[in-house]
Design a protein that fits this description.
The chain has 143 residues and is an alpha+beta fold. It is 42% helix and 13% strand. The radius of gyration is 20 Å and the shape is elongated.
């Protein structure tokens, strides 16, 4: 058998190719989520846009506070959160013009449907999110 294995042509093959995407693998991925991934998955599951308001933008400080309240023992930073949000399709923008032309930083989230599709691509799975026409609900209150 060793002779056959040594003689086998493995050119172009890699052990991480074509890994079966099973429920057990998804459970394993979920158990090893970073605090940012866990936070984002919970937002997608609940359909809650943290730090949101009636407009389409979220206050960065409120988003960070929402994260720290949901994972109080984790070491998370605003910079780490920013990098993560960028990686999942959120965009940091400047909004409004107050007195003397000042603008405020804010996060613009993709639609809930887009965010959920992107998450499923990232996790290489298909999640039953329930209502496909759901929209973000806003949360600016503590968890």
């Amino acid at each position: 058998m060793l002779y056959d294995l040594l003689a086998m042509d493995l050119k172009g093959w890699h052990p991480r190719q074509d890994v079966p995407q099973t429920k057990a693998l998804l459970d394993q991925k979920m158990q090893s989520f970073s605090p940012y991934e866990e936070f984002w998955h919970n937002c997608l599951h609940d359909g809650v846009r943290p730090g949101g308001n009636q407009l389409e933008f979220s206050n960065p400080t409120q988003v960070y506070n929402h994260l720290t309240q949901s994972s109080p023992k984790s070491r998370v930073t605003q910079q780490g959160l920013g990098r993560f949000l960028n990686s999942v399709g959120c965009e940091q923008v400047r909004t409004g013009s107050g007195k003397e032309g000042t603008q405020k930083r804010a996060w613009k989230f993709p639609t809930l449907a887009e965010a959920r599709k992107a998450w499923d691509r990232r996790m290489k799975t298909t999640t039953d999110w329930g209502d496909l026409d759901a929209h973000w609900s806003d949360a600016d209150i503590p968890l």
